[in-house]
Amino acid sequence: MKCSRVVARVLGAVLAGMGLAPASAAQVDPEPFLRRDEFRDVQLSPDGRYLAAVMPLEDRAGLVILRMSDMKMSASFSLGRNTDISWFSWVGPERVLLGVADKFGLLAEPMPTGEIVGLDADGGGAEVLVGQRVVSAGAGTRIQPKKPEDVWARLTDDLPADARNVILTVGSFGDDAYTRAERMDVESGRRQQLARVPVRRADFTTDHQGVVRLATGADGDNFSKLYHRSGDGAEWTLLNDEAQSRRREIPLGFSADGATAYLLTDHPQGPDSIVAWDVASGRRSEVLRDDNADPYEIVYASHGPREPIGAVFMDGLPRTAFFKPDHPDAQLQQMLERSFKGEMVRITSRTADGRLALVLSTSDRNSGDFFLFDIQARSAKRLLSRREWLDPLKMAQTRPVALQARDGLALHGYLTVPPGSSGRGLPLLLLPHGGPYGIQDTWEFDDEAQLLAAAGYAVLRLNYRGSGGYGRAFQQAGARQWGLAMQDDLTDATRWAIAQGIADPRRICIYGASYGAYAALMGAAREPDLYRCAAGYVGVYDLPLRARALTTHGARSLETWAGEWMGSDPALLQANSPNRLADRIKAPVFLAAGGEDQIAPIEHTRMMEAALKEAGVPVQSLYYANEGHGFYTQPHLKEYYGRLLAFLGVHLGSKPAD
What we know:
By secondary structure, the protein is of the alpha+beta class. 20% of the residues lie in helices and 34% in strands. It has a domain of 227 residues: Alpha/Beta hydrolase fold, catalytic domain (Rossmann fold, 3-Layer(aba) Sandwich).
C-alpha cells in the first residue's frame, strides 16, 4: 500500500521520545487546538465524481460539495446562526439530502429542526423538502407536493437501488410523540406514509428491499419495546418489552439474505452483545460479545447489502472483531487496519461499483485524515485532513488506564501526558466528562487533553460509573449517585494517580464542563484538601433547579428520567448541590458560562459564583451573553482558554516536579 504519511507514522514512537520538555502554560498558543476542523464528515458520491463534506464555520455548520477532478467547490449550503448539519447522505450520483439542526454551543447536541434539504452536486435544486421553512407551490396550485409542517424528520433508508426515493422517520415535536415511516421523493418532497407502530418515539428499520420490518421505541415509562412485522401491511408483533424482559434490544439491520435480524442486546451483568434473531423460527443466538466493553461502533458491509458484519470495541485501545470474518468487507477492513497500523480506520463511503472507498484514519494524536483508497490497485491517496496544521508527531500520546473503585468496581480511563515528559510527578488535571449517563471518554483525539498536555499538564479522563461503554449494570450503578458514588470514583482515580507517581499531590486541579463542571465543584467541596484548584465550564450546580426544569417540561419521559437517574428526594438533591456546599471549598475556582445556554442555564453559574463569594472563596468568572452550552466564536474561545491556562498556571505551574 502506497501512503507516505502512514509510513511516517511508523516512526512516531521513536520520534515522540525526542520532543522538547513541556512548555509552560504562558508559552502555549491555544489557537491551533481551538481552530475548527476544516472538514468534519466526508462522503464520496456513488459515481466517485464528488465529495460532500460538513464544514464547521464560526457560528454554524455548512455543507460543501467538491469535484474530485480538481477539488474545487461545486456547491455549498448553510442556514442562519446556530444551525448545524445533523446528518447528510448521497441519495443518487448527483443529489444530497441533509438534516438541519439548531445547536446552542459547541457542547450541545444538535436539536433537529424537522427540516430536510435537498441539494444537487452542481449547486442547483437547493430547497427545503420537509419542515417549517418549506415554500409551497403557491395558492393557485391544487396539488401541493410539499407544505410547511411542524414536524421533524430523519433518514431511515437511502434506498441505494432507487435514486428517486428514500424512507424517512417523521414525527411531531414533543418528547413523547408518535412517529411514522414515510417514503419521500427526493426531488419533489412528496411523501407517502408506510408504517406506524403502537409505541411512542419509534425508530424504524428496513430490510434490503426497503420494506419497514422492525421498530423500537418507548412510552413515558422509558421502557424499550421492539416490534416486528413480516412485510408491508402486516400486523406488528411485539418481540421484546423491557418492562418484562429487563433487557433492551435495538435493531442493527438484516443479513444479506434477509433471514436474520441482528440486535444490540444488553444484559443484567457485563457488556452488551450482538444477537442474531432468526426471522422464521424466532430463535436468538449470541454472535459477538467482548469480555469487558460494549460494541463501540457497528461495522457494516460497505458494498452490496448493508448488513452488520462486526463491531469495534473501545476497551482501552480500539479493537475490531467480526462475526462474519469471511465476508469480503471484513477482510478489507482487516487489511486497512494492518496498513494503517496504530490508527483507527473507518470506511465512510464507497462507490456503487465497489472500486473506490473513502477511508478515515484517526488516533489519539491524529484528529483525522481522509484517504481515497483504490481497492483493486491497493493504493491510497490522502485527500483531506481535518486539521492539516496539527502534526500528529508533535501531539501527546494517550494510554488507557485501569483501576478499582473503593467498592471494588473496575474503572477504566485514559491518561495523556506532555510530549517528552517522564510521566512522573506531573501537575495533574482530572477531567470528568459531561453527560453524565451513557457518555464515554475514548482513546481518540481529544482537543482539551491535547491543549492541556501541551501546556505541561498530565490529563486523566475517567469513565466513572454511569458512563457508557461497559454494560447496563455499570451505567445503572450511577443512578441517583450525583455527588455520591460517581464522585467517589473520581476521588479514587485522583488518589490512584498519586499512588502511581504520575501526579504531584501538591498540584492537582479538577476541571470539567456541563456535568463535568458539577463534578469539579463537588470534588472541591467533598475533598477540600485534595485539589489545589477547580474550574467549571457551562455547569449545573443546583440540583433542585435542574430537577424542576426537567419535571416541569411536560413530558412524562423526562419526569421518569429525572426520578430514576437524578433522584426525587429534595433533601438529597440539596445536599449534593455544590452551590449549597460553597463553605466547604478551599481551592480557588474559575467559572465560565453563556447566556443562551439551554442545557445548563447561566443562572446555575451565577448562583455558584455568589455562594463562593459569600463563603470567601477566591473565584474568577467569565460570561458571554450570546454564547450557549460551550462557546462558539473563536475570540471567545481564545479568551476562555487563555484565562483557564493562566488560572492553572498560577495555581499549578506546569514544570515537572523536581
